Amino acid sequence: MTEFKSLVIEGTPKTPQIELDPFTGDFIFSGKSIPENAAKVYEPVLKWVSEYILYARPTTNLRLNLEYFNTSSSLWLAKIFKVLTQINDPDYVLIFHLYLPVDEYDELKDFEDLKDAFFPIADVLQLAKPSVGIKLYGTNDAEEVIKDKLVFV
Questions:
Q1: Residue 132 lies inside a defined structural domain of this protein
Q2: How far is Cα of residue 138 from the mean position of the Cα atoms in its chain?
Q3: Alpha helix positions (H), 94-139
Q4: pLDDT single digits (tens) 35-77
Q5: How many CA atoms lie within 13 A of 136 on its CB side?
Q6: What is the CATH number of the domain that holds 31?
Q7: pTM value?
Q8: Cβ neighbours of residue 31 under 8 Å, at least 6 residues apart?
């Protein structure tokens, strides 16, 4: 893995900041994702993640802090999530960190609410090979975390 490097894609007003670090297992998506051509943004990420799973860290943290994303972005994100669930070691852990405005966070009261809100992610995670957790964060207007909870592992 000595030649496998971090991937950093600078954000724009329409595309997210993406930082993927193979040495720490930390993946960060932040900002907005409303690109004209989602494939141009996410195809290199999908390719990189497909390589990463061959040399994955024991814990991979995917931090999804997108204030807004369009349908084409969500399709690409689902593809990326699906690849990450193929880390081929049941002793490894994949944690999805999801950041929400605190009012949306507070609306998620029980399992059915969570299942409805995160159905696309939950659907992809059903066949995951590594252990999977989802951690929710409630943020204020300054994007500071003021609440958090682990949803399931």
A1: yes
A2: 16
A3: 102-107, 111-117, 119-125
A4: 999 999 999 999 999 999 999 999 999 999 998 999 999 999 9
A5: 18
A6: 3.30.750
A7: 0.87
A8: 11, 15, 16, 17, 65, 66, 67
